[in-house]
Amino acid sequence: MKAAKSINFALQINLGVNNLEIDIMHDRGQCLSILKEFTKSDSLLKHAFAVETCVRAYAVKLNEDIEFWGNVALLHDFDYELFPTAEEHPFKGSEILEGKGFNEIFRRAILSHASYTGVSRQSKLEKILFACDELAGFITAVTYVRPSKSIDEVEVSSVKKKMKDKAFARAVSRDDIIKGAVEMGIDLDSHIAFCLNAMRENKILLGL
């Protein structure tokens, strides 16, 4: 009997480790703690929340793993404040997450959002993360220049008009916004409208 109990206990420990690895990737609270441990900038935090909002909305629409997708988006830039160079970001972040038990699928999606990493975007998650990254930042920038600074005033036409203004939000790649929609296989206007609606629904958290 003692031997049987020992075996069962060992199995429980092993299962517990495996569940921990799964849970951390599905636990927004733990992922948020990691984000805030490495990111102190309010603008970077809000960007993480904005991209998370858009990616989660797509996960809901496509009946995908909402928590997993959302947490990938939440952590896609978590290392940027400490490791902002192309030589380090998002490679350092991937190393840190690997040490915390995040699996290859999670880390690969993050690596693929930066084209210079050489990690090609293959899965729906990878393509959607890339497509939402620059666009979420651009929508935020457009909102800030509206008279009321409210996302409720922003329309698809407003976003597309600002995309033509090369002096506006220069750091945001228009090519990546367009490429993101192409890789997803959807119309750019539809993609902008979808992300706008998702961000409107979460405007309190996003400060918009």
Brief characterization of the structure:
With 208 residues, this protein is mainly α. It has eleven helices and no strands.
The major pleated sheet works out as:
none
Task: Note the beta-strand portion.
Answer: under 5%
The level-1 CATH class: Mainly Alpha
One letter per element, helices H and strands E, the order comes to HHHHHHHHHHH
Mean pLDDT: 90
The rough form would be described as: globular
- Number of discrete domains: 1
Helix content: 55-70%
Indicate the low-confidence ranges by residue numbers. 1-21
CATH topology value: Hypothetical protein af1432
Q: Please give the number of β-strands.
A: 0
What oligomerization state is this entry in?
single chain
Cα radius of gyration in angstroms? 19 Å
Task: Please give a structural write-up.
The chain has 208 residues and is mainly α. The chain has one domain (2-206): Hypothetical protein af1432 (Orthogonal Bundle). Helix content is 68%, strand content 0%. The protein contains eleven helices and no strands. It has helices spanning 2-26, 28-38, 42-61, 66-74, 91-99, 104-112, 124-144, 156-163, 174-184, 188-201, 203-206. Helix 7 crosses helix 10. The radius of gyration is 19 Å and the shape is globular.
Relevant terms:
single chain, 208 residues, 0% strand
